[in-house]
Write a structure and sequence with these properties.
Length: about 80
């Protein structure tokens, strides 16, 4: 893969992560679901990867089976309150 293409994919991945986290935080205390976000973004694979990354770094909690409700962690809520991004 070419370096410019890789950089573009990385930027897109981070942009999807930011958007998902912002939507989940905006909806809190009502959960968003992964299928719902996949429909909104039109790219279920990008949403799957972004959710996995956010979960791995401790900013997103995933609950449930099929519906996979998404919840911000306390760390994500605190960072949001502090306007850390």
């Amino acid at each position: 893969m070419q370096p410019d293409r890789k950089r573009g994919e990385t930027r897109r991945h981070f942009a999807v992560q930011r958007a998902i986290l912002a939507l989940v935080l905006a909806g809190d205390p009502v959960a968003r679901t992964r299928p719902e976000l996949a429909r909104e973004f039109g790219d279920s694979e990008a949403v799957r990867r972004a959710v996995a990354s956010l979960q791995k770094c401790g900013l997103l909690e995933v609950r449930g089976g099929e519906s996979q409700s998404l919840w911000p962690t306390n760390a994500a809520r605190q960072a949001h309150r502090l306007e850390a991004w």
